[in-house]
What we know:
Elements: E1 12-22, E2 27-35, E3 39-43, E4 53-59, E5 66-76, E6 80-85, H1 91-97
Amino acid sequence: MYTMEHxxxxxxxxxxxxRIATHNGVIGRGRxxxxxxxxxxxxxxxxxQLFSRLRIQFNSALDGRPTVVEGxxxxxxxxxxxxxxxxxxxxxxxxLVVRPLSGTNTYTPRLVFRRPAAGGSTD
Length: 123
C-alpha cells in the first residue's frame, strides 16, 4: 500500500522536547524528531486520535521563550504522530529548523535596524 506525502518543503532532523495539549484535554510530553514547513513527526506516548487538533509548545531558538504552534494529527504509527501545522512555516518552526547544533561555535548574526541619519538616505 502506498501513502501519499502531503509535506511541503524539506524534512529536517531535530530533537526538541515539547509539551502537547489537545482540545479534548489530553496533555503530555513528547519530542519532535523531524520537521518541515508543513508539519512534524512527534514521538509521544499519548492517546491521540487521527484529526485531533492540538497545540505543541517548545522553547524558541530565537529567544528561549515558550512558543506555541497549532496543528492536527494526520498520521499515527508505533513511535508517534505525524502533525500538520495549521499555518505553513510559522516563524517559530523556521527558528527551530535553523537552530545550530549544540556544542558548535557557530556565530549567528543578529539583524540590526539602523535609524536613518538626519537628512540622509536609508541606503
